[in-house]
Design goal:
4 helices, disordered C terminus, 35% helix, 4-stranded antiparallel β-sheet, globular, alpha+beta
């Protein structure tokens, strides 16, 4: 897994809504990029925005940035912000596995739909007993 933390320049208050709309739009433009695992917009206590981008690898991250969609995304951002974002990049070397209900005892084959059913069963006290 490869992670980029994108630091955006300050967003003027009068452009905040436009910036957030741009980020949502850019997610739609990039959502089908090969290797893209996630893309989130975070806001710190100081009001600064940071993007968290997760990819399968540095190579898929680079491929996304070389795409026509990414060029359009960057061009649209230039009309909203003054200055360029910069990214710090990282290779994930250790991570906590995400588990569904029952601490993930159903294994990797469990789907999101399985977990939804399990949560409902857990509310009735049946999730872990039903395995």
């Amino acid at each position: 897994m490869f992670v980029a933390v994108v630091h955006f320049p300050p967003v003027p208050a009068q452009r905040d809504a436009a910036f957030r709309a741009w980020f949502a739009w850019s997610n739609e433009q990039l959502r089908d990029s090969a290797g893209l695992a996630g893309r989130r917009l975070l806001r710190g206590a100081d009001g600064a925005y940071v993007g968290l981008v997760e990819h399968d690898s540095a190579a898929t991250f680079a491929q996304m940035h070389a795409s026509p969609a990414a060029s359009e995304v960057q061009q649209q951002l230039q009309g909203i912000l003054e200055g360029e974002p910069h990214a710090d990049v990282y290779e994930v070397v250790d991570a906590v596995p995400v588990a569904g209900c029952c601490g993930g005892t159903r294994g990797d084959e469990a789907t999101a739909a399985d977990r939804t059913v399990e949560v409902g069963a857990a509310a009735e006290g049946g999730c872990c007993q039903a395995s």
